[in-house]
Amino acid sequence: MTALIEKLILYFSYPFVRYALIVGVLTALCSSLFGVTLVLKRFSFIGDGLSHVAFGAMSVATVMNLTDNMLLILPVTMLAAVLLLRTGQNSKIRGDAAIAMISVGALGLGYLIMNIFSASSNLTGDVCTTLFGSVSILTLTEAEVLTGIILSIIVIAVFFIFYNKIFAITFDEDFARASGINANRYNLVIAIVIATIIVLAMKLVGSLLISALIVFPALSSMRIYKNFKSVIIFSAVLSIFCAVVGLFTAILAGTPVGPTIVTANILVFLICSAIGRLAKRTT
Amino acid sequence: MALLTCTNLTLGYEGKKVLEGLSFSVNSGDYLCIVGENGAGKTTLMKAILNLHPPLKGDISTGEGLKHTEIGYLPQHTEVQRDFPASVREIVLSGCIGRQGLKPFYNREEKNLALHSMKRMGIENLSSECYRDLSGGQQKRVLLARALCATQKMLLLDEPVAGLDPKVTQEMYELIKELNYTGITVIMISHDVRAAIRYASHILHIGTPVFFGNKEEYINSRLGSRYISLSECEL
Ligand SMILES: Nc1ncnc2c1ncn2[C@@H]1O[C@H](COP(=O)(O)OP(=O)(O)O)[C@@H](O)[C@H]1O
Ligand SMILES: [Mg+2]
């Protein structure tokens, strides 16, 4: 036990571990705050589609050898978010079909581009890293950490400033519109924020597993709490807890970071489901 | 100037007309009941008044300082998903969303308004309950309290008693009547013509032909008397 703690203390003296922890906690917080809205608005599939778009943008950025990948990935993902939201409201193309097209298309093209243009000797490893985030969180540069912190602060601020509007629109969009709320504008804000969260979360868990980070804490929390505020707070707590536990387990056991965090989320979900079921039976 | 005036409305969806040439007006303190067959366009009319789905043609204007956004609305179907976690208090308070403006949070005045609305609906003891665990009648009261937070002047109620049992239906009608007595103008969509002629001051019958007038005129009209006797046959 003491050996384990000593090992942890030793790891903490490395800046890359501290960076990973900071970005991990902030990403987990951001994704859980908006996860509840996404799940309730049936938007979670958009998150899934967007994460594939982010992967496509990432492969292009890698090939172009950009100094900061985010400069390309963030705007492309945001644009895709806005487009997906538009097509979702357009009755001619089915929203889910459009999302499937865009996400699978981006995934396929992204891999193809990497395959053709990449100079790397370990292509499969690179792709695997982008998809499952196996080590990218542990190789953050100072600039990336700073970008991550700034983006997280913006996301968290947007959430608090628009909290009541987000609730009203999520609960009953027609009523909010009738009260003079410009629901389209807020839906747009939500779409752009999702894009930001996805780009953040890509570093932590990789693009294939982002949805897990968004969906699991919300679903777990909804098993136990029955009002919006508590659900949000508890899902934030769960999400951060899983990120920290997952990160340390990954470092200590040498497992890939993303899948370890997702596994922690799955376990927590199972526990919350059990508690929720027990609570229902006793009342 | 009436509180709400609709002139020569044509309503419909993407070229498909539902209603044509509809004109009526509502004065302060009125209790207007909108009746008509299923699919006649009652909900569509309500959405037009609320600015949710603009009319294809015609004009809807408000008077006496009433703004479109200050109309309290009770939807027919709530789009609330079965698993939505929200407390009664959170939902009622969301009725203040239109007054909130750019402030991020609700102020004391708005919180008091929510509390007052819950008291008027007799649900203040449910305030921390979860909405989805309530009975149908309680849920309608919650949504009515939310509508009361949005308005001082006018309520639009789309089939407020649909799916309620007879006793709860009666309570709901009494509650709405009391709100009307305190000076709130009520526009209610109802399937129940007998309740309409019992509580309303005016009737708008949508269909072919259209009727608009006060209750006595409706009872004495051919359309009205036929519709009323028809609904009695159904019982
Ligand atoms: N969103 C929509 N798009 C197209 N048609 C619609 C839509 N909503 C309702 N309708 C059609 O408009 C007509 C009137 O519907 P509605 O106003 O809901 O009737 P009511 O409330 O009187 O039962 C119906 O024929 C219905 O099929
Ligand atoms: Mg209807």
Percent of residues in β-strands of chain B = 15-25%
Class by SSE composition of chain B: alpha/beta
Q: Would you give the CATH topology of the largest domain in chain B?
A: Rossmann fold
Biggest pleated-sheet summary of chain B: 6 strands, mixed
Under CATH, the topology of chain A can be stated as ABC transporter involved in vitamin B12 uptake, BtuC
Q: Based on the structure given, which CATH architecture of chain A is correct?
A: Orthogonal Bundle
The count of strands of chain B amounts to 9
Describe the SSE topology.
The complex is a heterodimer of chains A (283) and B (235).
Chain A: H1 2-12, H2 15-40, H3 44-64, H4 70-89, H5 95-117, H6 123-132, H7 142-161, H8 163-171, H9 173-178, H10 183-205, H11 210-224, H12 228-253, H13 257-282
Chain B: E1 4-13, E2 16-26, E3 31-36, H1 42-49, E4 57-62, E5 71-74, H2 88-93, H3 97-100, H4 108-120, H5 136-150, E6 154-158, H6 166-181, E7 185-189, H7 193-199, E8 202-206, E9 211-214, H8 215-220, H9 222-234
Parallel strand pairs in B: 3-7, 3-8, 5-6, 6-7
Antiparallel strand pairs in B: 1-2, 1-4, 8-9
Kindly describe this structure.
The complex is a heterodimer of chains A (283) and B (235). In chain A, 83% of the residues lie in helices and 0% in strands. Chain A is built from 13 helices and no strands. Chain A has 283 residues and is mainly α. Chain B folds into two domains: 1-18 and 28-65 and 153-208 and 216-235, P-loop containing nucleotide triphosphate hydrolases (Rossmann fold), CATH 3.40.50.300; 78-150, no CATH class. Chain B is built from nine helices and nine strands. In chain B, the strands form two sheets. In chain B, strands 5-6-7-3-8-9 form a six-stranded mixed β-sheet, with helices on both faces. In chain B, strands 2-1-4 form a three-stranded antiparallel β-sheet, with helices on one face. The longest helix of chain B is centred in the last third of the chain and has 16 residues, at 166-181. The mean pLDDT of chain B is 90. Chains A and B meet through α8, α9 and α12 of A and α2 and α3 of B. The structure holds adenosine-5'-diphosphate (ADP) and magnesium ion. Residues 13, 18, 36, 38-44 of chain B line the site of adenosine-5'-diphosphate (ADP).
